[in-house]
Amino acid sequence: MSKQFDVVVIGGGPGGYIAAIRAAQLGFQVACIDEWKNAAGGPAPGGTCTNVGCIPSKALLQSSEHFDHANHHFAEHGISAKDVKMDVAKMIARKDNVVKQNNDGILYLFKKNKVTFFHGRGSFAGKAEGGYTVNVAGKTEESITAKQVIIATGSNARALPGTPFDEVNVLSNDGALRVGAVPKKLALIGSGVIGLEMGSVWRRLGADVTILEGLPTFLGAVDEQIAKEAKKAFDKQGLKIELGVKVGEIVNGKKGVTVNYTNAKGEAIVLEADKLIVSIGRVPNTIGLNAEAIGLAVDERGAIVVDGDCKTNVPGVWAVGDVVRGPMLAHKAEEEGVAVAERIAGQHGHVNFNTIPWVIYTSPEIAWVGRTEQQLKADGVAYKAGTFPFLANGRARALGDTTGMVKFLADATTDEILGVHMVGPQVSELISEAVVAMEFKASAEDIARICHAHPSLSEATKEAALAVDKRTLNF
Q1: Same domain, 14 and 137
Q2: Which domain holds residue 464?
Q3: Fewer CB within 10 Å: N-end or C-end of the chain?
Q4: What is the per-residue pLDDT for 92?
């Protein structure tokens, strides 16, 4: 006999496991299905983010940053460090341990919140009395029934047509996190978040890195002034970024990968590399979901069709995260997961797409929320801008990292904050103040009049807000 639940969540990534926990907190009997396996074949909930995305990439970025500092920055602090070497196997092992700690943490949270966990692949069998039947294909075959189903099956890396991932020479984000030795030459296609972060990791460790980008502009979604500042820093570091390229034939051979491309000048270039990382976006994952069994609508991109509340066309079935419209961000998925659980309980879940922060964890870090200057111009919005460089920030000088700036954009009439854009040290943490301010519809003056600790990097945020009214104090 099929086990009956109030809510079944298919997928244990950020959207799924958070939805399951919130639904359980609200008093529902909840099950969560996830098929991800660790090296031993055991459960590894957390999805792409925990297993081959956000968490492991940050672990490698941290390790490579320590190595870079030891080689290039310790001396200026009076620290002598000669013949510094990187044990790549140990670095990867540490990364794997960080991932396992997160996997185990999620399993603990399921137990704590009385969420029943099923290890396997979930798929719809059809409608049933009392809701829907979902099959679980794992070590054993199981069938469960739920009144409400939340789909949180995430996304997969998009491959280049004709160049499949072999995760040996042609790598997705998964393979890029498991490289066993520093490649002499590394090529990347796509200068988005994954391309820049992985390129940064291996450049710091000694690889000769070239990033190929089809678009003529660098980080087109980022405020132009911030993107230019970031590009200047990356160029100085030796990260080679070619824009406006047209990638042609790619040959995956025994000794590496050959990428034929045409550069922005129209010149034909042959790039030889030991490894190629392809990071050209992600596609919604509905493989094996058997959506047709319940008549679930999927769009031409492969995404599940939902309304503004994450409801699908099928009553009682919801979808969140990368498998639906909107930005493919772990924290966006989490917010949708919470909102859907609360809507099932009759509450009013809240997700504001306009205040979702974005972060690229390179050095310098890049973070932003709200609209860019180019978007405000295109929308015909009258605005005021204020910037403040980290070069004039005392804490940044003490850290030895004065690259970048904070930029505020505020309504010319009301002074309401419309966007905040940052490039520089630890801006992944600084951006939260801007998110809070925008959620409360604060003005730039509100931030300018708040006392910030001295010396702190956050003073750059206050000073940029002051700059909107042309009254910075330290620049």
Answers
A1: yes
A2: 355-468
A3: N
A4: 97
